[in-house]
Write the structure tokens for this entry.
Amino acid sequence: MKKDLVSIDDLALESILDYLDLAARVESMSGAEKASLLPGRILATLFFEPSTRTRLSFEAAMCRLGGRVIGFSEAANSSTAKGESFSDTIRTVEQYADIIAVRHPKEGTARLASEISRVPIINAGDGANQHPTQTLLDLYTIRKFFGRVDGLKIALVGDLKYSRTIHSLCRALLLFEGVSMTLVSPETLRLPKYLMKAAAAATATFRESDSLAAALRECDLVYMTRIQKERFPDLVDYEKVKDSYRLDARMLEGVPGHFKVLHPLPRVNEISPDVDSTPHAGYFEQARNGMIMRQAIILDLLDARPGRSAT
Amino acid sequence: MTPQNQILLIPKIERGFVIDHIPAGLGIQVMALIGRWPELEDAVVTLGLNYKSTRMGRKDMIKLQAGSLPPRLLQMLALVSPGVTIKHIDNFEVIEKVVIQVPELFDNLARCLNPNCITNAEPHVATRFRRVESGSRHFQCAHCERVCTLDELAGHIKV
């Protein structure tokens, strides 16, 4: 049966752990071994809105697996500009590709694509809804740095209200044992209540805090996000908080050696460049892990895991 | 008002259906739904509003002289007014009585409340709303995953 990756909510903990293990296995393989896994296979990357890391990491992932890539990087370069429906675009592209990664500004597009397409669909971001490959690569990065996810103390910082990355990551972290999340955000950008309530049924805990400095002392890692100016109805409010959660190297003095800073990128000014050269900066390795995790996802959905003959 | 007076106000029907226990105020909305079906165009319909009810305080009631009810109308009733009773009448007698329950899934009955949901951009796409959990009045769009209440969905019935 065809498999898709549309929503992190579709994955049980076992499936998430399976993806983490598969990514570790892929990472351990030589370049030549990887390049022999998907010869002749084609990935279509349909990006109806701009992206740097997600699109390029999908394309690099497929190329390094020996496959090829077709697609477009903005809606203006597709027949959408001529009025073609999203459904028709999917029905057309599935004739050419073995697997499709789709990013679209409208929510629900990846689910719709998965209903229409006979080839696997990967959700590379649907509006403000889901970005499951980001969540999986975040979890992979966390486990790589710490050897586990269970029991970690994680500070989530910045725009917790609107960030789909944060929402998906929270939902996934709730599946693990005893994760303690410290939520650091301006009052106006707090985590939605429905997510806070979800913790009641899990062993994870949430705690709200206004102080980034306190979170740095108490946690194992900090996951930073950009505070998005466009989310503020009143720009005076934005000016008040825009630099509230700016992390620099000086603030990291005294944190334990294992402490890590993660960020889905792009950053604006929430992480000072002087953090890059500290041993705590994990965000560029996180970006690299994106490619590895996407290789694992592509291999799984194409039923072409290493050691298994492709069908 | 005696029960006999009530019967005079909304007479018994020989054959058809009684939609009973409609919450007071929703009867006109249910009438509007019935009006969507061409096959019910010639049916004699009686609408009664604001009857006293021991169970509900006040209720509306509709009597419909028709051979059958379209299944999709029953699904819409489950969305707009769950808990209504449908009585099948033959020869002035109730031969079957069904209470309309909230289902686990609404299949292509309502539009998504999220204006940025793809189902609103491509209206030919069939919507689906799943109950978040048993007994809940919250439903989730199968596409954009937005959660809304039953009442909100009832306000977005597809034309």
